[in-house]
UniProtKB/TrEMBL annotation:
One of its GO terms (biological process) is regulation of DNA-templated transcription. The keyword Membrane does not apply. PROSITE patterns: OMPR_PHOB, RESPONSE_REGULATORY. This is Response regulator transcription factor. It comes from Streptomyces sedi.
Amino acid sequence: MEPRVIAEGVAGEVARVLIVEDEPNILELLTASLELSGFDTRGAPDARGAVVAVGAFAPDIAVVDVTLPDRSGLELVGDLRGVRPGLPVLFLTARDTVDDRLAGFRAGADDYVTKPFSLEEVVFRLRAILRRSGGDGEEDAGGAEPLRYADLELDEDAHAVRRGGRAVRLSPTEFSLLRYLLLNSGRVVSKSQILERVWGGQTCDTRVVETYVSYLRRKVHAASPGPALIETVRGVGYSLRLAEEERR
Ligand code: CA
């Protein structure tokens, strides 16, 4: 089955993306790439322009550079949501440290990409956030495409997980954990990020994450004799990805 185009916002219309970025080359590149992927875009070179555009353009989602000339992108999010409450935000950040990422999440980011980013990744993240936010929290009557990685598949509508076509039975927490890993497949997420996103910051004991990852790993691997998918990245966290040799 062909994956359907899911550059959709509320009520199945083409999703509108506000891009706030002061570097003209990046703005141009993002605009061209997102338009090509089926999004309707509007660019703003600074925070002031973004606040004007959020009212006029009524975006479904915003891509916000963290370092803007007139205001921090982190602070801008509050201004944007003052005009459009609940507006999902994808941050662009040049700083690749866990602390900065967490500051971004505290400021209300739905996700982030680190510069230099691939355009495919931006498109992937935007679609993932839009799917999660489901157009103002309303159920998407058409049903979302399952999240997939290698032979692993997570169907949110049916609340079902399959590996190599075989059902994997997960508890609600394991399901949320796997969903978060799938949304971030191919990259490393820290234990703190997992705690924040899966447990909603209710606990700060990272051993909880370790325990649940081990449950999840056991169940996912018991379902299929395929390659290991949940990798431990020592001192950092976890990554849902195929080992180097499997990727070739
Ligand atoms: Ca910048």
